[in-house]
Specification:
Number of domains: 2
Helix content: 25-40%
CATH class of the largest domain: Alpha Beta
Bound molecules: pyridoxal-5'-phosphate
Distance between the termini: 51 Å
Strand content: 15-25%
Shape: globular
Largest sheet: 7 strands, mixed
CATH architecture of the largest domain: 3-Layer(aba) Sandwich
Number of helices: 8
Structural class: alpha/beta
Strand order of the largest sheet: 4-12-11-10-7-5-6
CATH topology of the largest domain: Aspartate Aminotransferase, domain 2
């Protein structure tokens, strides 16, 4: 109770610095007291427009009434069961709905995970187990998370990887197309082919993981022909194509998944829904 009287951002920052490690960064020295739609109010009563949305995860804004109502109804029924121990129907229903939305005219399955990094890690595990191959190709400037495997996949050193190596082996980085840097689709595909020629044989590559729009990497849009040619290259060599849509999924580019716009159906895809991160959808085939 003592903490709830006369709170200021400065006082809370002082407590935060004493109690929480510096590794948990903070962009603004502001503490939120409440939020409605796109607006938030800090503990001193100052109003802001929330352009960050929890870093692009809050599609429906703060406290949308239908969502609040559904959450309240749910917590009145039961708390945590662990789906693997005691299942519940909403998990199945949501998986069915996402399967219907995900690109590809084939049977699909969805699992729900807590973070994007966890979704990416599981996609790599599934790809390795299914193909019995170990290598993975990712792209320069790509971002896939903060765990050691996902940092290994991330194609940008500062600020993500500095000081945290060594990273898991058998990860190779090809060039991502970037018009501003003069890297065309041809260059990017040639870069993948160069890895298959000079670093690892195609028959040992389990997966190629790609963001249809690089987010952390600078909002680089993958040309559709690049994604289509990557799909063809994967099919040619029995490599699984993984689309990391943690930042682009759930309608953030206008379609439910950004991959839909290229006409390419990956073998596995991750997205992220309001607040909680995301489901990994995969073809019905593996496992
Ligand atoms: C493309 C992409 N992949 C993976 C991640 C990791 O997600 P999380 O922070 O939930 O682990 C992010 C996070 O921003 C992301 O943008």
């Amino acid at each position: 109770m003592q903490h709830q009287t006369e709170q200021t951002n400065a006082a809370l920052m002082a407590r935060r610095r004493a109690a929480i490690p510096r590794g948990v960064g903070q962009s603004h020295e502001v503490f939120i007291a409440r939020g409605v739609n796109a607006e938030v109010w800090d503990v001193e009563g100052k109003r802001y427009i929330d352009f960050a949305g929890g870093i692009a995860v809050l599609n429906t804004g703060h406290c949308r009434p239908e969502i609040m109502q559904a959450v309240k109804e749910q917590i009145d029924l039961y708390t945590h069961t662990c789906f693997q121990v005691l299942a519940y129907e909403p998990y199945v229903e949501l998986a069915e709905r996402i399967n219907a939305l995900a690109p590809g005219n084939f049977a699909k399955k969805t699992m729900f995970l807590t973070t994007g990094a966890e979704a990416v890690e599981n996609a790599i595990k599934i790809a390795r187990s299914y193909t019995k191959r170990s290598a993975v190709i990712a792209f320069t400037s790509g971002y896939h998370g903060r765990t050691l495997l996902t940092l290994g996949l991330t194609g940008k050193v500062a600020p993500y990887k500095t000081g945290f190596g060594p990273f898991p082996a058998e990860i190779f980085h090809a060039q991502f197309p970037n018009a501003a840097q003069g890297i065309s689709s041809d260059d990017a595909i040639a870069s993948v082919e160069s890895i298959l020629k000079n670093d690892v044989e195609a028959s040992r590559v389990a997966a190629i993981i790609v963001e249809p729009v690089q987010g952390e990497g600078g909002f680089n849009v993958a040309p559709f022909d690049f994604l289509q040619r990557l799909r063809a290259l994967c099919d040619q060599h029995g490599i699984l194509m993984i689309a990391d849509e943690i930042q682009t999924g759930a309608g953030r580019t206008g379609t439910w998944f950004a991959m839909e716009q290229s006409g390419v159906a990956p073998d596995m895809i991750h997205g992220q829904i309001d607040g909680g991160r995301l489901p990994a959808v995969r073809r019905g085939g593996p496992r």
